[in-house]
TrEMBL record:
Keywords: Membrane, Transmembrane, Transmembrane helix. Coiled coil: none annotated. The keyword Transmembrane applies. Signal peptide: none annotated. The chain crosses the membrane at residues 12-32, 44-64, 76-94, 114-131, 143-161, 194-215, 227-246, 258-275. It comes from Nitrosopumilus cobalaminigenes. This is Uncharacterized protein. The lineage of its organism: Archaea, Nitrososphaerota, Nitrososphaeria, Nitrosopumilales, Nitrosopumilaceae.
Amino acid sequence: MSETSIKKPSGKINYLFLISLFVGIIIYGYYNSIEPDIDAEIDLFEWLLLAVHVVATTMAFIIAKQFWHTGQKVLQNAYLALAIGMLGNLLGWAGWFSLETMGVENPYPAPNDLGFLVWHAGALIHLRLTTHRFQPKLTIKQLFVLFVIPTFFLVFYIMSYSGEAIFVDEEHGFQFKPDKIYIEFYDECNELCFYTSITFVFLNPLMLSYALVGFSVFRKGILGPAWMLLIIGIGLTIFADIPYYFMELYGGFDRTHWYTMFYFVSPLIITYALYKHRDLIHSE
């Protein structure tokens, strides 16, 4: 029986492929924004969104299985956590679109949010394990990043909910709202909505903080460019999630929102990053 090990990365990233990918995403984002989002129907853009998550989840489990035979317990657990998180993310999206086809308008919060919670937990566990695996003791500057970014977003979100200056949308811009937020054409966000959002609003910046810390650690780490691409992919999801959970205060998610393209490109980058991980693992 062969034994699997990790080797030094080749460092070869196909930048032409990445550029082509981002050009394609811009095209996707444009047509996605002008094509009306019809409730009770899964359109082409939503099928594509599900498809890229299926591909990314499949690749995550393939790589997790390969890491499982390396004998390195921390990396085994890290990539298994990521794969489970990716599966949760896929189930979350599938649940969302299933509720939509049943006529549930802007289902939030809903049972499928448990899938998104699994994604956040799995990605955060992965980021933490891999970062501390190669740098067990963080610097004061890195700890500062881990504290400040989540705290800033958490405070801003609470201020938004309690009636400070808030960003409504592109049409209405910033507005001051007394007491709890209420916009005449939207329902008021109830307590369950608020506490669900505040959980994710905290987890997303925390993931972003660990991604930034991990980026500084892995510039010279054994996983090299492959892992840096991976945290970029995870980071793009975070850049979509943060405006998403703020917008849930003001009326709900719509597929045509500009940040949807980050949900689309993120699993593609993650898939490519995980594919590059195959260069790091070989049998002896």
